[in-house]
Every structure is written in C-alpha cells, then in structure tokens.
Amino acid sequence: IAATNNGGYGIELKATSDNNSVTLVDSTLANNGQGNLSNTGNNNSVEVFNVDGVPNSTVTVKLAIANPSFEIPVLPTIQESPDGYFLSVLSSPTKDTIPGWEAYDPKDLITGIPLTPGGLDFTDAGTQNATGFYPSGAADGANTGYAFIVDAPGSGVLGLTQTLTDELTANTRYTLQVDVGNPVTNPALPIDLTGFPGYRVELLAGDCVIATDNNSLSIAEGAFGVSTVTYTASAKDPFLGQELGIRLINLNAAPGVSVDFDNVRLTAQLL
Length: 271
Prior knowledge:
5-stranded antiparallel beta sheet, 17 strands
C-alpha cells in the first residue's frame, strides 16, 4: 500500500498487492474533498473517512480487471501475419485462451471451423491486433477483444466475459466503461465487415445482470464509442457479497459481423 499527498489537493492511495484492509483518515481529504485510489491487487478493502469521521464520498476506487485492453498476448498486425493477427477462444477446448476472459456463448454459436475451406466465415470470439481495422488504431494499446458472428441476425448472441475478485459492496456507486468498436473491412480479409450488429455491455453480481448498456451508441465504421454503465448498491441491496462480473456482447441483431471491445475499466465510488 502506498499513500501520497497528491500535490496538496488530496490523497492518492495505490493498492498494488493482495488482501489489504485499509482505513484512511486524513485532513487533506477533508479540506479539499478529493482523492483517488488505484487498486491493482485483489481482495482489497478500503475505507476512507474525513477527520470528523464522516465517510468521504469523493474517493473513487479503480477495481482490478485482468487484461482490460486485451494486450496479452502480443500479436502481429494483419499485414505481418494474415493468419496470426488474432487469437481465438477456439484454440483451447475450454475456450479460455485469452488471459482473464472466457467466451460467453449461450446459444453455442462458436463453430470451430470455417464454413468455407480457408475462409473466415466462422463464428468466434477472442483478441486481435486491431491495426488495419481502425484508421487511428485500437482505443488503448494495439489489441481489442472481438465477437465475430456469421450466423443470421437474430440467431443468438456471442461475447466475452470475466468474473472479478471484487464483490458488490453496500453504499457504493459502480461505473463500468468500455470502448466499443465498429471495424472497417480490411482488403486482406475475404469477408465484408460492413454494417454493425449491435452490442451490449453488462455489469453482473454473481449470475445476475444488475446494469446494462443495450446498444445505446451509434458508432461509425472504423471508430469507437464509450459505453457507460452505472449501478448504485444500497445498504439493503439483494446482491451484496456477490462477485462482480463483466460481459461484452455482440447482439447479432442487424446486418454486420463483428463488434470489438477495448479499454475496459470499472470504478467504485464510496457513498
């Protein structure tokens, strides 16, 4: 745990190891009403109070997400390797080859083989080097997660999911943000990416979806939009103590093939 005075305007507290329980009482927070907490460890519990003993509601905790921008593993560009620029969950029978992420495939759409020999007409999810699909590159780093569906619109959804180590906590406002991408067609690929099948971003507590953004953004081809999902847990929330989770979904609800996801972040504000 490291606590530093942030230029005289607040406290910046960084939790970089696991299983920490911290109570911070500081007049700087009381006087300036500002503070940040960065949590890159697991199972960290933090309480922040002003000097008068009142909980400080301006402190925001950045919750740990494994591989939030899909940068692991490092992948070549499509120009460097037309067959190696992506890593599919199909690479493993357990569909969990992307560190931190697993496939969300409730309709068993993932095919496992191209429908046309040598083609890209198969349904799949994973991570890819996004160079060549966005004029300005990925939203964060080089890679994006993707959900790629060649099945007819309406036949089912597909995406990526992650269960976090943090649990839903009382009197806390959660904000989940994800950069959602609409890739352009790359001439190196034998498939047309024109169109956008729609997306959904879900925040979960246990197996229950507690907040969602159901395709609220209009995203131009070759661009990203920032999806924001919020949820406030009360002292009597029925899902308290449940592990938080994230789902990133291709809705397959309109003409189009692929939806990309990047720069996944989740904060918790103590109320």
